[in-house]
Amino acid sequence: MTIVIGQPQIxxxxxxxxxxxxxxxxxxxxxVPHANSFGHNFRDYDNAKxxxxxxxxxxxxxxxxxxxxxxxxxxxxxYGKLEKVEMSIWECCELLNDxxxxxxxxxxxPQIEHLLQTAEAIRKDYPDxxxxxxxxxxxxxxxxxxxPSFGELPQxxxxxxxxxxxxxxxxxxxxxxxxxxxxxxxxxxxxTKLGVYEEGCGLENVLMSWGHDDYMYLVAKENMSxxxxxxxxxxxxxxxxxxxxxxxxxxxxxxxxxENLKWLQIFNKYDLYSKSKVRIDVEKVKxxxxxxxxxxxxxxxxx
Length: 303
Fold this sequence. Notes:
With 303 residues, the chain is mostly helical. The chain has helices at residues 53-66, 69-79, 89-95, 111-125, 130-138, 212-222, 229-237, 241-244, 255-273, 282-296, and strands at 24-25, 31-32, 86-87, 301-302. The strands form 2 sheets. The protein has a two-stranded antiparallel sheet. A two-stranded antiparallel ribbon has the order 3-4. The longest helix has 19 residues, at 255-273. The radius of gyration is 19 Å and the shape is globular.
């Protein structure tokens, strides 16, 4: 069954009690905090005072050196078989309780907290788009690749901003300087604007750096999820900041990508700005999300 969705409708901003002048209010009333969990600006990769800055930069150095075209192909072949385990979506959510993303300068909470923060913020502003609520809940489930039962991959092979491989690394990618040590940057087949691709080929035909985004996309697709294409697009490209924030790589997109990008840019605001110390009552919201999981996924999935 194909779920048909319309164009994104930006919800009219409301006057909210308790909101002071200068607060950033997302489309339906979600108030964006002025700072992340550490008291710094969101996605601040240059703040020397950030408690996690040094570790984040070293993460990206390893990521940028090792994410090559050949590496991505090998990982897709190995993990695309989906033969690690069978479990439900909610079981996977619970498996993430002990996972912390070392690439994220804004968050040090367990991942399930971020998943629910994102989903609930979207639900408040877009109450009729239940597929988008569920996408918020599951978008980071691919981070189970960090778990011992999935091979306990290194952080650089699971998290962080994603980018195409097989063509030139755009300068908008965070900590771009470390790509000079990536073998592909010296390979004439991979270091041009188009590389191995054709203009307008569609992002579906472009290899992305390996990590939780691409893995969860494969899990959803191969387990016959009925999420609309925009939901799958969000899952696969939500960490592709060079595209949805900086506007790079648009020459590779087709018309369907351009339509789905509109939803991704809406989603990204909630993915980024909902990271906070506000706790979600898991047991209170669990029945609602279980109903959505049953609507869009089989009871057990191959991972």
